[in-house]
Specification:
Blueprint lengths: L2 H12 L3 E5 L5 H7 L8 E6 L3 H6 L5 H7 L4 H15 L3 E7 L13 E8 L2 E8 L4 H26 L11
Parallel strand pairs: 1-2, 1-3
Antiparallel strand pairs: 3-4, 4-5
Helix pairs in contact: 1-6
């Protein structure tokens, strides 16, 4: 089972929905999810917010956040995921922003990437330092975003006490 299949199946079992907000992947995360038969039961939609002004005007990111941290930042990725959930009315959202190349951006090297997930009581992000050519960086970003979503879904399941009776010890 692929990461996309796993995430969609888990969300469908929970009766929850998903959206995406993507910059450097420009729709590849949504396309990967939509490639799974039955994705429409979970996937509400996605926004390819490639340009900075689209991130603020369409997705609704706070321009002050973009000014302070830049679009290549953990803060931007987290805000993108949060706004995607709001814009699409979904339970969960995943986002990506970064530099796929060929040139650096905002002083960040090619391969600097941030992915984030927002869900019920959950906000997670990961910073990545990827190498390779443009398309391999974009593909690795999709993989990382879906892995982060899978991890967040598993953690949320455990937090609800449905982790087969095990308990955490402080």
């Amino acid at each position: 089972m692929t990461s996309a299949q796993h995430c969609l199946a888990e969300l469908q079992t929970r009766g929850q929905t998903l959206a995406t907000a993507e910059s450097l992947t420009c729709g590849l995360i949504a396309a990967t999810l939509a490639g799974v038969p039955g994705a429409s039961a979970v996937l509400r939609g996605g926004l390819a917010a490639y340009a900075t002004d689209v991130k603020t005007s369409v997705l609704g990111l706070d321009p002050a956040l973009v000014e302070r941290y830049g679009v290549i930042s953990r803060q931007c990725a987290e805000a993108m995921a949060d706004r995607a959930a709001t814009v699409f009315g979904s339970d969960w959202a995943v986002s990506s922003t970064g530099v796929a190349g060929p040139d650096s951006q905002e002083g960040h090297a090619v391969g600097t990437v941030f992915v984030a997930v927002a869900g019920p009581g959950v906000a997670r992000s990961v910073a990545l330092a990827l190498s390779g050519e443009r398309n391999s960086i974009r593909a690795a970003t999709v993989d990382a975003a879906l892995a982060l979503l899978s991890s967040a879904l598993e953690a949320a399941l455990g937090e609800r006490g449905k982790d087969s009776g095990s308990c955490d010890v402080d």
